[in-house]
Amino acid sequence: xxxxxxxxxxxxxxxxxxxxxxxxxxxxxxxxxxxxxxxxxxxxxxxxxxxxxxxxxxxxxxxxxxxxxxxxxxxxxxxxxxxxxxxxxxxxxxx
Length: 95
Prior knowledge:
about 100 residues; alpha+beta; 3 helices; globular
């Protein structure tokens, strides 16, 4: 059973409370600028642990101190509550 897709109004409401995130097509994205390269890698490690626990994994792009997280529920074909929950956890971890 797949997680149901969010409606447009649910996506809009979620993004209203996730101010650092933006929508790109069927995904949401946030870039975090870490104080150092190693701090960025540490953040990726902590996000990876949270993603494993949730069994929901972001796409991650690391460019020196900038780490970009992209979330979409590929099995559902778009954005679901899983993406919103992981975005909130990434925000918490990024501080």
